[in-house]
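> call design_seq(struct)
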């Protein structure tokens, strides 16, 4: 069971599902209710979208491990299952099977929603996942940006599909689009920072496949400075978000950002300066995941 959990990154999949449910039930539907808008996407359509997205993420994770056998033998030998619990052929077959199921669900969702948008967006996400696994992850920053865009793109995709199926007037459209934009930018920046931290953690194994990650090309000191700039920019945007939250009397959400996002982000910046070992960078990567979860929790806090 532990092998399956590690292989599929189950905590990450649960976070994806949680994010979809937060957006639908704490953003979309409450705004619809406030403006007497009928929900265009049914629970079945919504569940299809969530399952298809999770299948795409699962296929991407497995494909990434399939093409990373050599580096994983150095970076994370304790979590390597290819060649031990699963053969290379079986692993690739699993990635392809998940991809095929995702494609079927994507087209089914488009049929029931009577729109090409769901299939187009989901197939784009699947293509980027495979492109990353095969080539992008070895390139300078492009792989990091691809993962960050897929993370934030999940948020945007949820709204685009929902919007395609619902008749939303201008004002509620602006409200939801504003929230989605803010959350997606936050997810983009945090995911980008985390991916680069993971590159510092995996620098030894990545050298074996001639990976052009930022730490390898520019060195650890430069990479740290780059991450601190990204963290500072993220912090400034969070302050701006707090100002808006106070203006709209969302005091609890503003306090939530301070306690569960901004203060932890300051701690990350301080810890990053002192980080030296692979273990240090791994802890920072995990810490960033909790910060991201805290940011998503601010959406729920905004309803209080």
């Amino acid at each position: 069971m532990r092998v399956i959990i590690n292989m599929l990154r189950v905590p990450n999949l649960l976070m994806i599902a949680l994010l979809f449910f937060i957006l639908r039930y704490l953003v979309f539907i409450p705004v619809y209710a406030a403006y007497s808008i009928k929900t265009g996407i049914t629970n079945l359509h919504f569940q299809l979208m969530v399952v298809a997205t999770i299948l795409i993420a699962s296929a991407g994770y497995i494909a990434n491990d399939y093409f990373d056998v050599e580096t994983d033998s150095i970076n994370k030998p304790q979590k390597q299952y290819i060649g031990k619990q699963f053969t290379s052929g079986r692993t690739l077959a699993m990635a392809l099977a998940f991809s095929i199921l995702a494609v079927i669900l994507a087209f089914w969702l488009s049929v029931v929603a009577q729109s090409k948008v769901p299939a187009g967006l989901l197939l784009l996400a699947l293509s980027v996942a495979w492109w990353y696994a095969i080539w992008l992850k070895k390139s300078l920053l492009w792989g990091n940006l691809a993962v960050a865009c897929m993370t934030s793109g999940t948020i945007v995709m949820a709204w685009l599909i929902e919007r395609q199926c619902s008749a939303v007037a201008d004002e509620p459209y602006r409200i939801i689009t504003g929230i989605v934009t803010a959350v997606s930018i936050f997810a983009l920046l945090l995911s980008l920072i985390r991916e680069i931290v993971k590159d510092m953690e995996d620098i030894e194994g990545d050298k074996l496949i001639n990976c052009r990650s930022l730490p390898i090309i520019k060195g650890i000191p430069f990479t740290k400075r780059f991450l601190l700039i990204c963290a500072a920019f993220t912090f400034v945007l969070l302050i701006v978000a707090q100002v808006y939250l106070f203006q709209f009397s969302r005091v609890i959400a503003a306090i939530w950002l301070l306690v569960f996002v901004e203060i932890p982000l300051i701690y990350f910046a301080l810890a990053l300066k002192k980080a030296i070992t692979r273990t240090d960078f791994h802890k920072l990567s995990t810490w960033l995941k909790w910060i991201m979860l805290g940011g998503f929790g601010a959406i729920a806090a905004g309803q209080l």
